[in-house]
Amino acid sequence: MTDAAKLSIGGKDFDYPVLTGTIGPDVVDIRKMYGQTSAFTYDPGFTSTASCQSTLTYIDGDEGVLLHRGYAIGELAEQSSFMEVAYLLLNGELPTKEELAGFSTTITRHTMVHEQLAAFFRGFRRDAHPMAIMCGVVGALSAFYHDSTDIHDPVQRTIASHRLIAKIPTIAAMAYKYSVGQPFLYPDNSLSYTGNFLRMTFGVPAEPYEVNPVVEKAMDRIFILHADHEQNASTSTVRLAGSSGANPFACIAAGIACLWGPAHGGANEAALNMLREIGTPDRIPEFIARAKDKNDPFRLMGFGHRVYKNYDPRATVMQKTVREVFDSLKVSDPVFETALRLEEIALNDPYFVEKKLFPNVDFYSGIILSAIGFPTEMFTVLFALARTVGWVAQWNEMITDPDQKIGRPRQLYTGPAQRPYVGLDQR
Ligand code: SDX
């Protein structure tokens, strides 16, 4: 702890402790402030608020740094695997070969879902957005796994965590299959986590499905890039839901609902739709002008970030992965050239430079996902699939945090003061 922070309010002076983390900004501990001053802090959108202590993920927005348990995202994306990153986020250290094998086997053995869960899909229209299906089906999981909903039992917390990480790809693949009218495929335990997901999504019972190793590696890397990201909106939703003691399945369903928003995880779908609407580079100036026009609600989707005021390191890896996948699969998409040109123009435009708006993780992801064969409606489902690892790790950290209590913010009330009721005849 460094020097105290001083606050003068109502003619009185107050000192509040300043807490220092391993790296990153200090925090002013204001937990006693309301009791001492009868005033709240005011911070809509929590732009200056730390909601918790965490050891999972560190972001330096000015430098464009992202660390998971101290390991840089670029190194993890190049050298690790999604299962290994999941183990790292859940347990705090990189696994040994034996630990990784054991963890992967445990996850693999939980990939099947209760057979009656398939009935939930039949209630949806075939053209239902897959994120609507994910919200509904994941929220219903607690109806099937009562034996792992006691949040105070560490054994049950671990089982629920493994079930969520293991079953989310199966449910995601089922959501896709339902939308295209194809039968669900059961998991194949001989495949990797990501290979299994690809087969359940793109395979059909009528013939064997060969997992393309280039696609498998690219997909696994995309999952790594989306695994966790500090206290973003959906993670904060999971933590807030969990703070009431809600079961982990309900908490993850809440996170999925929040992620769906176009300002958050829904931006990957919106970004590709935007790039397709722009079409050719000659139309870019028109969209840049709209993004800068205060009277136009249009924003460049996949650009800007609450924390990154530099290039999102995940976008760097994502752009590189587009090139690798295109070269390897011998495919191309003119929208990639449009995206590169849009980035170049925006990063040289004073509006974007002054506001420090850079491409974020969602700007390039849709281009790869589209090349692999996913429809745009599935993009945020894939984000939710990967982020389930981070949500589960953050939920576990919150539940075991001694400082944890139910989240209950206050407000600045600007409504009417108390007034007498007026009968209907007098109005
Ligand atoms: C994700 O939090 C996370 O970590 C999220 C995430 C994760 O992994 O969990 O990283 C994933 O959600 C990435 C972000 C995906 N969203 C988008 O790409 C949607 C487009 N981006 C914006 O809507 C916006 O940049 C946000 C929502 C991402 C961040 O918004 P902030 O921090 O609240 O900033 P703001 O809306 O107050 O904008 C600051 C200024 C404003 O102008 P002024 O009012 O100050 O004049 O920048 C402008 C905004 O109008 N601005 C943009 C813009 N983003 C911000 N102008 C044009 N295009 C944009 N994309």
UniProtKB/TrEMBL annotation:
Keyword Ribonucleoprotein applies: no
Pfam families, sorted: Citrate_synt
Organism: Sphingomonas abaci
InterPro entries for the chain: Citrate_synth-like_lrg_a-sub (IPR016142), Citrate_synth-like_sm_a-sub (IPR016143), Citrate_synthase (IPR002020), Citrate_synthase_AS (IPR019810), Citrate_synthase_bac-typ (IPR024176), Citrate_synthase_sf (IPR036969), Citrate_synthase_typ-I (IPR010953)
Record: active site: 305, 362
Catalyzed reactions per annotation: oxaloacetate + acetyl-CoA + H2O = citrate + CoA + H(+)
Pathway: Carbohydrate metabolism; tricarboxylic acid cycle; isocitrate from oxaloacetate: step 1/2
Region Disordered, residue ranges: 407-427
Highest taxon in the source lineage: Bacteria
Name this polypeptide is given: Citrate synthase
MF GO annotations: citrate synthase activity
Annotated keywords: Acyltransferase, Transferase, Tricarboxylic acid cycle
Lineage: Bacteria, Pseudomonadati, Pseudomonadota, Alphaproteobacteria, Sphingomonadales
NCBIfam families: cit_synth_I, PRK05614.1
Protein family according to the UniProt entry: Belongs to the citrate synthase family.
GO BP of this protein: tricarboxylic acid cycle
Gene Ontology annotations for the cellular component aspect, listed alphabetically: cytoplasm
